[in-house]
Amino acid sequence: MSRTQTGCPWRPANKVYNSKPIIELHEEIEDFFNYITPNPEEHSLRLSVVKEVTGIIKQLWPFAQVEVFGSFRTGLYLPTSDLDLIVVGDWLNMPLRSLQSVLERNGMKRVEVIGKAKVPIVKFTHARSEIKVDVSFNNKNGVQSAELIKSYKQQFPSMAKLVVILKQFLLQRGLNEVYTGGLSSYSLILMMVSFFQVHRRNDCGSPSANLGVLLMEFFELYGRQFNYDKVMISCRGGGNYAPKSIKHNWGRKRPSILAIEDPLDTTNDIGSGSYGMPSVKRAFEYAHITLSQATNPNAQALQTNSSSILGRIIQVSDTVIEYRKRIKQNFPLATGANGRSSDSGSECSSEASFRF
């Protein structure tokens, strides 16, 4: 009988994993995805936060349109992921300070204007749920990119499970925010899409692929092989690599930064803000070395069924575990007379409207 390892709550207490380490890693990735996938209470709570914030915004601008984008719209969010909203309206200058004031009056916490970012935003924390929210104005590309990501999810069935692993990996190392030099979710997903597009395995993106092998090969590509100085990624037309030199000034000031052509705007390098890319590269290289050692058949005798292979590179903190428990306890789903949830948006897989 196996035991759940500290920091690895995705490992069922009584599960016996495959004796082959590379298959065990695949099984653990499956279990992590099932564990970290938002439960109905978490999904429903986020919808309620969107509706509450929309109501506050419409106190100021009754005719504004509020749309959800980012990871909540694509379904690729972690329990602590930010909630991304766009306010669409007719303004000559973005009313960042006006929004800050009305949010503070309505009890939102840690309201902050990030006015000098490439896409200016208002950041805050929803007091009751502790969900962090980012609001931008008239950023229509955000919705388009979310819909593009959803199409990539359909094209590459393995993508979602690998992306949430990588998001957790970057999160716990503080490498997941562009404004601190990290890698955005959009950049990460396009790196994964490019990996699938240029990969030589026939089963690369299929549901039957070994996720452990794919994860290790992703880490190997971007941690040890990819030429960040000279090559850019393009996912258009089935995907390809191209020299940075074909784009005027791309990478000239910081050649070590990853260049990624935005499929929705070929003049936009979405990797340009990730000045901490050398740290991301080192983290990927570390992960590849660590997993290669853990899955080496010669080291198989050292493996025990209570020792997590995936847990060597990612952990889920007690703080997150307790936070998820609090949501389940404090925000139960409303139920009807038949005992079933009356919230049509409570199922994480359901198709909810993201326009308000």
TrEMBL record:
GO molecular function: metal ion binding; mRNA binding; poly(A) RNA polymerase activity
Keyword annotations of the record: Magnesium, Metal-binding, Transferase
Class of this enzyme: transferase
SUPFAM superfamilies (alphabetical): Nucleotidyltransferase (SSF81301), PAP/OAS1 substrate-binding domain (SSF81631)
Chain ranges of the Poly(A) RNA polymerase mitochondrial-like central palm domain: 25-154
Pfam families: MTPAP-like_central (PF22600), PAP_assoc (PF03828)
Record EC number: 2.7.7.19
Transmembrane regions listed in the UniProt entry: none
Stated name of the protein: polynucleotide adenylyltransferase
Organism annotation: Laodelphax striatellus
